[in-house]
TrEMBL record:
This is FAD/NAD(P)-binding oxidoreductase. Residues 3-118 form the FAD/NAD(P)-binding domain. It comes from the Bacteria.
């Protein structure tokens, strides 16, 4: 089996690249393969609002078949091995697929099992997470059942997808608890393995005001290591003293540690940390010139988001087409990423920035302010831009 271009992963990055490539080079029709075992495709950014009860889970899910662009061949299998020296990938059923060019877009791996007791307790008795379609409804359920006590929101000290998501759901929760008159009986806590609330000063300043206004308790450099579901106790490691700290909860929203997918970590495509080792500007692999990477599985030193992929896809496609025409690879990505920081039902700070953590904003207003218009953009407009624009290779 041979294809001119093989794309591993048919999520946000893989489909965006395939659609754009086939739109710009129709002659590639039938010569682009997408390898992905998934039956469903998810618009994950809305899971924050699903967890907050503002959007139904079902609107975030579509059949994978429905997003495969015309002209692409879908091979519905998992890749288990990369053989870049031989220009081949091997699938779980031992199919060897060869390529001229490879694009790796396999997303990030959520390491649920790295937190002791999490698997056993997730989805019930107040333990919830927006980081999976299977569990996202448990967040809303936990919130509705919450009658007071500690509501804990965690963030790990590893890279994660959407760095802002651990706190967005907390602001929605605070808003909901105020509306349902239980906020005065509750202690809302952000317990994070990180060191700051947000990496870009302009937005961190705004978020610190939100936290003060909402009377949220914060603890940094505390990593969740264990959930004792029966006792409703969360165990954190203080990253400075290495001491264990136990906190009782009535509800806990968990963002587990994440890492590069195992089959990438162990492959020749990985850098020392396991990510697909690409040039941060051209997205071309640093050692295998006919390989590109996009999205959450890459070494790109920016916040891992779908918004970042919207700017990465045109770069991958332009550089891939240059190579197909034996031209030099010149198109560059500046690290653009965006985090729509929901601060309540109807308010949002739209963070947009680049590799240097300098704001790179789209609108002629101060985006450091909480705005209703930006909330509506996230809830109603960005999903349309995703399904009908990005996944069609149009934006
Ligand atoms: P994915 O879209 O996750 O796709 C990876 C694909 O690879 C999957 O289809 C998977 O089946 C496939 N795959 C995995 N292993 C293999 C294998 N072995 N072989 C073949 N295929 C494989 N982004 C924003 O821009 N804004 C937001 O507000 C936002 N909020 C978020 C909130 C939450 C709760 C979450 C979970 C994410 C959020 N994101 C947000 C992040 C965004 O969804 C991701 O960054 C984006 O989907 C990453 O795209 P990707 O293509 O790299 O990975």
């Amino acid at each position: 089996m041979h294809y001119k271009v093989v794309i591993v992963g048919g999520g946000s990055g893989g489909i965006s690249v395939a659609a754009r490539l086939l739109r710009e080079a129709r002659w590639l029709s039938g010569q682009v393969a997408i390898v992905d075992p998934a039956t469903k495709h998810y618009y994950q950014p809305l899971w924050t609002l699903v967890g907050g009860g503002a959007v139904a889970r079902e609107v975030t899910e579509r059949e994978e078949a429905s997003v495969i662009p015309e002209g692409a061949v879908w091979i519905q299998e998992a890749v288990k091995e990369f053989k870049p020296e031989e220009n081949q990938v091997v699938t779980s059923s031992e199919k060897w697929i060869s390529y001229d060019y490879l694009v790796v877009a396999a997303g990030i791996q959520i390491d649920w099992d790295k937190i002791k007791g999490l698997r056993e307790s997730i989805g019930k008795d107040g333990v919830c997470s927006n980081y999976s379609y299977d569990y996202v409804n448990s967040t809303w359920e936990s919130l509705r059942n919450f009658k007071g006590g500690n509501a804990i929101f965690t963030a790990p000290n590893t890279p994660i997808k959407c760095g802002g998501a651990p706190q967005k759901i907390m602001y929605l929760a605070d808003d909901y608890l105020r509306k349902s008159k239980v906020r005065d009986k509750s202690n809302v806590m952000f317990v994070s393995g990180g060191t700051v609330i947000f990496g870009v000063k302009k937005y961190a300043d705004s978020l610190n005001k939100v936290i003060a206004r909402k009377e949220i308790e914060t603890r940094f450099k505390h990593n969740l290591v264990e959930i004792r579901g029966k006792e409703k106790v969360a165990v954190f490691e203080d990253l400075d003293s290495k001491q264990r700290v136990e906190i009782r909860y009535e509800m806990i929203h968990v963002v587990p540690p994440m890492s590069a997918p195992d089959f990438i970590k162990t492959s020749p495509l990985a850098n020392a940390d396991g990510w697909v080792d690409v040039d941060k500007f051209t997205l071309q692999h640093n050692r295998f010139a006919n390989v590109f990477g996009i999205g959450d599985c890459t070494s790109l030193p920016t916040s891992k988001t779908g918004a970042a992929i919207r700017k990465q896809a045109p770069v991958v496609v332009a550089n891939l087409l240059s190579m197909l025409h034996t031209q030099p690879v010149v198109k560059q990505y500046n690290g653009y990423t965006s985090c729509p920081l929901v601060t309540g039902y109807g308010s949002l700070i739209l963070a947009e920035f680049d590799y240097s953590n300098t704001p790179d904003e789209s609108f002629p207003v101060d985006q450091g302010k909480e705005r209703r218009s930006m909330y509506l953009l996230k809830k109603d407009l960005l999903p349309v831009i995703y399904w009908d624009g990005m996944l069609k290779g149009l934006m």
